Automatic annotation (TrEMBL):
This is Helix-turn-helix domain-containing protein. The keyword Transcription regulation applies. It holds the Pfam family HTH_18. Signal peptide: none annotated. Coiled coil: none annotated. Keywords: Transcription, Transcription regulation. Residues 216-314 form the HTH araC/xylS-type domain. PROSITE patterns: HTH_ARAC_FAMILY_2. SUPFAM superfamilies: Class I glutamine amidotransferase-like, Homeodomain-like.
Length: 328
């Protein structure tokens, strides 16, 4: 997907400024220096008239959603009032999907994709407050209120607000590799990766300051020692906690379990090693803590959809064009 990609965000007449800013930040700036193409990017209205934000500002956009018919990636912006989207807009989305475009729904943009029939039989997410409503309206869609984003190939959906950045970074990682995604994250000053399965929100109280400081130290140590056998017992001892207390504080601070967080970090590091070097897959597996090439392959196929060697071939050319950003 390198070069010349047409990316179009489509917005209703009322939009939250955060989503508008997220897609503009990711797709509207020239970041060819970090390995992204220069996107042909525009945001267009789904309905006639000026675009209003929640805060009283008015945005005048050029063009209309006919641009969808030539777009490679269509960003379906939040449809906040859940009114029926215009039939012409839904038809344009169906045509885009039929000819091979990728569609990405942000927050209640999931409602638009479901209205177009593009989520039938698929898994999807949206802001947790809206999942039940969309489930009732579209029983053929499997809604998951507990994740940040869902990747169904050419249809992706994300949770609300800042999770839009996670969705964009996931797509960039998928299409251009871990090193480019890391460079983009550094450019916009955000963490490079939150796994899609991480909870949308954390209902547990945050740890006490002392516990939090110890957890930060343990997280950094885990990243530097992925090759070790990092059991909960080992990590708890490092944090000066009991295993049960450590597991509870870890979930409160990160929104996920130690095992799930560690698996995501190991896969992330394996991606970087596969993209940027010539280490045998067996050595990559050892360095990131999977032990054997077979174990790495199993996790890679399950979580990334391709074996490690195929992943390396797919991203080798792109990674060689990128500056050496190093590990996250």
């Amino acid at each position: 997907m390198m070069g010349g990609m047409i990316v179009t965000g489509v917005t209703p007449r009322m939009i939250g400024a955060l989503t508008f800013g997220i897609v503009t930040e990711v797709f509207g700036y020239d970041r060819t220096d970090i390995g992204l193409p220069e996107f042909d990017f525009a945001i267009v209205p789904a309905e006639e008239g000026p675009i209003r934000t929640r805060y009283g500002a008015t945005i005048q956009l050029d063009g209309d959603f006919s641009r969808i018919d030539e777009s490679d990636l269509v960003l379906v912006m939040p449809w906040e009032d859940f009114s029926q989207p215009p039939a012409e807009y839904l038809d344009a989305l169906r045509r885009a999907y039929a000819r091979g475009a990728t569609l990405m729904g942000f927050c209640s943009g999931t409602y638009v994709l479901a209205s177009a029939g593009l989520l039938e039989g698929r898994k999807a997410t949206t802001h947790w407050q809206n999942c039940e409503f969309i489930s009732r309206a579209f029983p053929g869609v499997t809604m998951d209120a507990d994740v940040l984003y869902v990747d169904e190939g050419r249809v992706l959906t994300g949770a609300g607000s800042a999770a839009g950045l996670d969705l964009c970074l996931h797509w960039v990682r998928r299409e251009y590799g871990a090193r480019v995604a890391n460079a983009l994250a550094r450019s916009v000053v955000i963490p490079p990766h939150r796994d899609g399965g991480q909870a949308q929100y954390i209902v547990s109280p945050l740890p006490e300051a002392g516990d939090s400081d110890r957890l930060v130290e343990v997280l950094a140590w885990m990243r530097s020692n992925l090759h070790e056998s990092l059991t909960v017992e080992v990590l708890a001892a490092k944090a000066l906690m009991s295993p049960r207390s450590f597991a509870r504080h870890f979930r409160a601070a990160t929104g996920t379990t130690p095992r799930a967080w560690l698996l995501a970090q190991r896969l992330h590091r394996a991606e970087e090693l596969l993209e940027s070097g010539d280490l045998p897959v067996e050595e990559v597996a050892k360095r990131v803590g999977f032990g054997t090439a077979a174990a790495l392959r199993d996790q890679f196929v399950r979580r990334r959809g391709v074996p490690p060697r195929d992943y390396r071939r797919a991203f080798r050319a792109a990674s060689e064009e990128c500056p050496d950003e190093g590990a996250a």
